[in-house]
Design a protein that fits this description.
Elements: H1 3-39
Protein name: RAB18, member RAS oncogene family
C-alpha cells in the first residue's frame, strides 16, 4: 500500500482549503469593518419612512 501518496494528497487538500478559508475570513472581516465604519460614522443617517 502506498500511504505516502495519501499523505501528500491530504496535505495538498488541506493547504488548498486553508487558503480558501483564510481568504473568505479576510473578506468577511473586511466587510464587517466597512459596515462598522458606516454605522459609527458621525453624520446622522436620515431614516427613510417605510
Amino acid at each position: 500500500e502506498n500511504r505516502e501518496v495519501d499523505r501528500n494528497e491530504g496535505l495538498k487538500f488541506a493547504r488548498k482549503h486553508s487558503m480558501l478559508f483564510i481568504e473568505t475570513g479576510i473578506r468577511s472581516v473586511a466587510q464587517a469593518g466597512v459596515q462598522w465604519c458606516d454605522h459609527s460614522s458621525l453624520q446622522p443617517q436620515p431614516s427613510s419612512p417605510k
